[in-house]
Amino acid sequence: xxxxxxxxxxxxxxxxxxxxxxxxxxxxxxxxxxxxxxxxxxxxxxxxxxxxxxxxxxxxxxxxxxxxxxxxxxxxxxxxxxxxxxxxxxxxxxxxxxxxxxxxxx
Length: 106
What we know:
Layout: H1 2-15, H2 21-40, H3 45-62, H4 67-85, H5 89-105
Helix pairs in contact: 2-3, 3-4, 4-5
């Protein structure tokens, strides 16, 4: 367990290596806005998680970080499920497609 913890800490340090102060502020600002709006609009927990992971995915993907895949794996099926509930079937099918193609490449 200690080895796994050390590997995780090393991985996270590597993922955030080279980030400028403004990039940290941008990440925290974007997540705070999403959380604030989700609470204000009375979003359900799944919607909040999908929103937060979607923003995190976008920022980490823009930085070219591997951690974006973890956020994408969480975001894509959640968003597909929420799209199904809202009867946005096009978005649902698109996210299912993204999820299946994404997992074939891993």
